[in-house]
Structure prediction request, 486 residues.
Amino acid sequence: MKEFKHFINGQYVASASGKTFENRSPVDNSLLGKTYEAGREEVDAAVKAAKAALKGPWGKLTQVERTKLLNKVADRINERFEEFLEAECLDTGKPRSIAAHIDIPRGAANFKAFTETSANLPTEGFRMDTPDGKGAMNFGHRTPKGVIAVVAPWNLPLLLMTWKVGPALACGNTVVVKPSEETPMTTTLLGEVMNECGVPPGVFNVVHGFGPDSAGEFLTTHPDVDAITFTGETRTGEAIMKAAAVGLRNISLECGGKNPSIVFADCDIEKAVEGTMRSAFVNCGQVCLGTERVYVERPIFDQFLARMKEEVAKLKLGRPEDEQANFGPLVSQEHRSKVKYYYDLAVEEGAKVEIGGGIPDMGAALNDGAWIEPTIWTGLADDARVMREEIFGPCCHIRPFDSEDEVIALANDTDYGLAAAIWTENSARAVRVAEQMEAGIVWVNAWFLRDLRTSFGGAKQSGIGREGGVHGMEFYTEMKNICIKL
Prediction:
């Protein structure tokens, strides 16, 4: 029986209460281990350790020394690649081929990417006139924000956790991480790597648990937490924002999405099908940037729909270690219940199920897992709940449109504004439509193509703030102005 303990001040510790919860495989519902649930005592110890490290050895390191340590962390993750890969696949059930290509290498790369960014983070300098004619100089100086609470999601556990921890540590902060209760393994394992690489105790801390009346609430309401960064659903983001209001702590929230894809008749249809397939079905649709609403210009609607159905029919469901599998289970039984609810609701609301729509028969060995069919619908009204609420599963609705103005209005008719994709070979149209999308990131003839130097975040109910490049560094540093009278 594996145990997943908290990592506090450089040591693995159990909860004083002894409370644990099960960690089960989404593949077959087998018991993977037990995870300790943090109470206020463990969260307080983690925050105190992080606070002490700020004043202690971590705070005394130069930027060059910090960079050397964090680059060593990245290298060590890659040296222990197979361990991280196994842990991520056990927790999520995703195919090894996907996790080996995306989750683990990009998770490690986040440390090096943000140490490079921090080394080139700009400030500002101004000379000003003064009444005595001698003048004064002003220059900006960045300092770490302090103790950062990192509340990480379950869909890309290592990648999205290090996406926040990497820049936080590169800027000289310390962190307390609350990974999802569904996926504790790789975040816990990272504690070993921190110790192996000589990162001082208290710099990286991990507390396990749930949200309300558990580790999440205790961490985000802790008065010694200086800022909170979160990726997850909008409802949880709202609760964190309320908690952060006490003490006026800064927040960075990347929340839900109901992302559109617009396919114009002049597109390269094979590119559009391939890109839309990935955006709707990769990682079982459990991607915040994924596409759930597809709008196709009417002249190619039938052809596009037929091609999408052909490609969905080719998806191979299977265990993570199955080299032929490119589609795994959902993360948990609880999440499958949510997604299946929307599958049933779509039919009630008048959808035509073009393909999928149910729970597959995976055989006796796997039928207890969180499997669900990749699904395409047509025929829903624009105000249907399935068209407006985030599902976060392997599904999309495909609808025809007739004009550019019409589809822009349809794409923007949502409470969310995280991402959008446009497929057209007309560059003028691409720019014109992209500029009108109410979203934080817009891809043209691509999807999930990310340059870590660029801004990332959502509009409307998809979040507050921007991560990536210098934009994220603004969140993880406090800018002060130093004025020197000459």
Summary: The chain has two domains: 2-255+462-485, 259-454. The mean pLDDT is 97. The first strand starts at residue 2 and ends at 4. The chain has 16 helices and 23 strands.
